[in-house]
Amino acid sequence: MRPIIKVEKLGKRYYLGPRETVPPTLREAIKNSFGTKVKLISRPHGDRHPSVWALKDVSFEIRPGEVVGIIGSNGAGKSTLLRILARITRPTEGKADLFGHAGSLLGVGTGFHPDLTGRENIYLNGAILGMNRSEITRKFDEIVAFAQVEKFLDTPAKRYSSGMYLRLGFAIAAHLEPDILLLDEVLTIADASFQKKCLERVKIASEGGMTILFVSHNLSSVRQVCCRVFHFDSGGIQGEGKPEAVITNYLKQVSAEPTY
Amino acid sequence: MNHPANNAISTVFESSSAKSALEFPKHARQLPAEPVTRIQPPRFWERIDFAELWAQREVLYFLMWRDLKVRYKQTILGALWVVLQPVLITAIFTIFLGKLMRVPSDGIPYPVFAYASLLLWTFVSNAILSSSYSLVANAQIITRVYFSRLLIPAATIGVRIVDLVIASFVLIALMLYYHVPLSWSMLMFPVFVVQIAALTFALGVLGASLNVRYRDVGTILPILLQAWMFLSPVVYSSSILPQRSRFLYSLNPLAGIIDGFRASLFNLPFQWLSIIIAAVVTLPLLILSILIFRRMESTFADEV
Fold first, then answer.
1. C-beta atoms surrounding A40 within 10 Å
2. Are the beta carbons of B299 and A21 separated by less than 8 Å?
3. Is the pTM here over 0.90, yes or no?
């Protein structure tokens, strides 16, 4: 079967230092752009700033309907990959083709406004995540029931508890129907029962044909829902395969690391 | 299932897939031959994706709706502020320039003369300021979800257009009060509104993209705007200028637009040269600003 996600030699470089890719002041930027134009184009950042490849030479393919987990230590490049696929940031090199609509959940309650009510935030957040108005209206009751916030629909979100905030944010995202769903660490802060509910939702969605990319530090949920796992380390794919094997390998590697 | 974060190709795919979904289970659905989204390193100049902007128009609507809803929560006078702001500024200038200094106003009562131009100026100034801060203010959204970033400054400017429309009812009231006669020249006024919206959009988008990298812009902007107001015929008539400096003065596109707007309302002679200069300056500026925005857009999430 043809892949729905095709990633080829993807790389992302970040510049270190107080200012990442830019001259420190407006004055210098103006001076640069007038003074050395050729240099500015061929070597925009010079060699003054040390850089780091958050992602380097990553290639893989994902088939429609797969639920793929991405695990790895902090700084391994998992989130960078998801941010590139979600079009938040652009890669430095390489290419990724998506053969379907992508929806992303890289943080819960994106664009929630504290002064707006729960009801208003459902519309706002839904629209930002890519639903149109009639779609939100159609799913409104379901979203509210999923989030269990019926009583607080007309309360400004700033008076919500962090749990309510999270539940509402996830409930909206859970009712997206993209072909590809990109999930980043979002469930780690929810309580056990809501996490379970969400994982069930992920399962149902994948049975319906949705392709899901799932970054998580919660290995047991990766084990539960994923059919394939990538292990990332220092910006590259370290291991790939069935969840059990990859996770065992990952844990072995972690325990082999020296502790200070 | 219309996801606005995709482009025109996806819209085509959308309609065909909706049909096939009736016949096959979803997972057996045919994948499109061409990728819906191709992710690549940014090019030096990115083209303007009008199809994507159109597909995402609802995001624009909801961003505007949010700003309008939120702005006057926890205020006592609420939306009345839209009108009060230009009214109060007009009152100040009427007292100091109109009454005390007796600045000539082309024979038109100073309050209505000044309100007409201050209405436009309030729009220009508020729209450019809020647009310039818009990307930074929406950093959380920019770093977490993708839609065309141009919609963010566009929404803030859209909100100010709504303000402009509301505040113009006071202008109508003032014109009735001062018995400004109806004239054919009034048919020209939409031309100047479109021109000023284009000019404001150009500068607002430019300010927004620069302010992501150089927060200096946000700091210097209020001062530049103040200077620009006095360089434009907002609280005085450009007819007080000597003839020889007219050309230089009309190189400021805002001069031609504001003069033209007032000329159309009060049936004064049009200064065609400055009106044409305004159009000639505005159009390339608009295109250039959007291209610069597109050029810088790829790094917003890394820098905001």
1. 16
2. yes
3. no
